[in-house]
Specification:
By secondary structure, the protein is α+β, with helices and mostly antiparallel strands. It folds into 3 domains: 83 residues, no CATH class; 72 residues, no CATH class; 160 residues, Glutaredoxin (3-Layer(aba) Sandwich). It has 15 helices and 8 strands.
């Protein structure tokens, strides 16, 4: 927050946007030597899928420049602190912190505890919820293991046999998320049978007004629950989460609407924005969800030629698809989704909201619990 304030002051003085100032600092960091790039490539060739150096050079260079760029930015912010006469105020973690206490001053700015709490409320709530979800998951695993042992005694067998019968032997596709789904179902049955009640108190819930805009959706617009997923089609976590989330949503029939909004992480996924454009182009021909299934399954091949191939595989009009790949209206819509995500505290993908409440653990049980909580209101 201090760094952002310093950049804003410098931006006004220099007549350049903060992102331009940051880009100028990064641009001064020299390119790594060719010998170093080659050495990193040689040492990590297998992890890079044995792709040729020319294909992965950009990623290696970005990796090698990350630390020196960060150090350069830290030095730049330190120089702005000197320039703007930065003074540290009261410790933000002080036990007796009052809303009016000043945490920092620089230039014409004073940051109070109240201002910090207000600006950081989503991040602070996220941290609290992540802690809660970790505790709850550990608690549920401990209870489940105890109940499996209890169930094994009741059936005259052992725990491994229970797991084999209820999970392993029921697996059919061995697709991502199948085992987790079966384990969640086993937990739900055993918790119901043994009347388990989790008494761990949930943190406060922040419900935001997450617009569905005119983004692609499945389910009734009048459904009681709306699930919004900010996604990046080159993001491995999105690929793993998508089928798990859709499976849970299917359990609730027409009570849930599913909406996908774009949040391509361009700084780390070079094909993410183009993939989002392609998905919207497919959506213009009524094949959005069929197309994104192909994107998730083929994340290592999202170049222009591959995107056009997927369109052909779905029988789309090739000429219209290529025209829609460059429509500025579609690009503007993606940028709007990114801006909305930023405003709602999205910093990575997937980011999933159920009736405006963020889901902090990407699991079958967390999704199911969030939907049930929304339906109960």
């Amino acid at each position: 927050m201090i760094a952002e304030g310093l950049l804003d002051l410098e931006s006004n003085a220099a007549g350049a946007a903060p992102d331009k100032l940051i880009a100028a600092v990064r641009a001064k960091v020299p390119e790594p030597a060719a010998e170093l790039v080659q050495a990193v490539y040689d040492a990590n060739r297998a992890e890079l899928g044995n792709r040729p150096l020319n294909e992965v050079r950009k990623d290696i260079v970005a990796y090698l420049k990350r630390e020196p760029e960060q150090k350069a930015l830290e030095a730049y912010i330190a120089s702005l602190q000197t320039k703007q006469k930065y003074t540290a105020g009261k410790n933000v973690n002080a036990a007796d912190l009052k809303p009016t206490d000043v945490l920092a001053t620089f230039g014409t700015r004073r940051i109070t505890a109240q201002e910090f709490e207000s600006a950081s409320r989503l991040k602070l709530n996220d941290l609290t919820w992540h802690h809660y979800e970790d505790l709850r998951a550990d608690l549920e695993i401990g209870i489940l293991n105890a109940l499996i042992e209890e169930e094994a005694k009741a059936r005259g067998t052992d725990a491994s046999s229970i797991i084999a019968t209820e999970v392993t032997d029921k697996m059919r596709t061995f697709a991502d998320g199948e085992r987790e789904h079966l384990e969640a179902a086993l937990m739900e049955r055993l918790f119901a049978k043994y009347d388990v009640k989790i008494l761990l108190k949930e943190p406060p819930v922040i419900a935001q007004n997450i617009s569905v805009d005119d983004d692609p959706s499945q389910g009734s617009a009048t459904a009681a629950v709306t699930v919004v997923m900010f996604s990046d089609f080159q993001c491995p976590a999105c690929s793993r989460t998508h089928p798990v989330l859709k499976s849970v949503i299917s359990e609730f029939g027409d009570k849930v609407r599913f909406v996908v909004r774009d949040y391509p992480l361009e700084s780390i996924h070079e094909n993410a924005f183009a993939a989002a454009m392609a998905a919207n182009a497919a959506g213009a021909q009524g094949k959005y969800f069929e197309f994104i299934e192909l994107l998730y399954r083929n994340q290592s091949a999202l170049d222009a030629a591959s995107l056009k191939k997927y369109a052909s595989d779905l029988g789309l009009n090739a000429k219209q698809f290529e025209l829609d790949l460059t429509v500025e209206r579609s690009a503007a819509e993606i940028r709007k989704d990114i801006a909305d995500g930023d405003a709602h505290g999205v910093s990575g993908t997937p980011a999933i909201f159920v009736n405006g409440v963020k889901v902090h653990r990407l699991s079958t049980e967390s999704f199911r619990r969030a939907i049930k909580r929304a339906l109960a209101k």
